[in-house]
TrEMBL record:
SUPFAM superfamilies for the chain: P-loop containing nucleoside triphosphate hydrolases (SSF52540)
Domain AAA+ ATPase: 31-207
Pfam name, any one: AAA_5
InterPro entries, sorted: AAA+_ATPase (IPR003593), ATPase_dyneun-rel_AAA (IPR011704), CbbQ/NirQ/NorQ/GpvN (IPR050764), P-loop_NTPase (IPR027417)
Entry-linked PANTHER family: MAGNESIUM-CHELATASE SUBUNIT CHLD, MOXR FAMILY PROTEIN
Designated name of the protein: MoxR-like ATPase
Amino acid sequence: MNEAELAQRMREERYFADEGLLTAVYLALTLGRPLLLEGEPGVGKTEIASVLARVLGRELVRLQCYEGLDAGQALYEWDYPKQLLHLRAAEARNADVGDVYDAAFLLERPLLKSLRCAEGAVLLVDEIDRADSEFEAFLLEFLSDFQITIPELGTVTAAKAPVVVLTSNRTRELHDALKRRCLYHWIPLPDAERERAIVRAHVPGIEEEAAETLVRAVSRARQLDLLKRPGIAESVEWARGAAALADTGDSWPVALRRALGLLIKDEQDMALVHGHIEELIG
């Protein structure tokens, strides 16, 4: 798949990547490098993994990172309750216990699951910045060889290396060692033309003038001193909510005002936006 075909397939999935992001995705696929995406919340970092899974016809495997995440929760665990039931059942029948460290008692976690996908997977490591630095260091080993050693069973190696997408909201700085192993790209907020295309693709039937009014209002809102600037995801949800209200008879400006809670998610920000509502919406 060349770059033009990739761009077309992504547009068919309603993902409108700019030239920089498209180049980063294409090179990551071509070179087999993990793709590290940073940017403000709501700019489409997570969504790109779902889109790639559909474009490539692969299974999406998601690892949601959080503070305290360890290797066992990300790799595999043994199903101890199932093992115990097996032991008790064998004792009750006076039968041979057998091997309780068999694959039948293994619980796949995302990293192991991504290796065992026969057709390859798209592995999303979401919000890696929320995990501890120790887990980040562990992840380096996984990304270098795409294999896992299970002491009781042996080494599991990927038959087909997964496509790896890592996302970060920059709540902390990532280690240089991780960045060196990845192809890095910062996703900025979109320009007005691209955001209108995104809104119209995700809210079928919205009129051009309504989409333009909404995108202009979002752009002006982002220029205010907000604690949480709205991203593309909030723009789309605001458009859906306003369109639903407009379908019941509200004018578009009234619908935008009533659905403002889909765009602004903080009390202080809401008060600030209400103070500029005429400037934003009219």
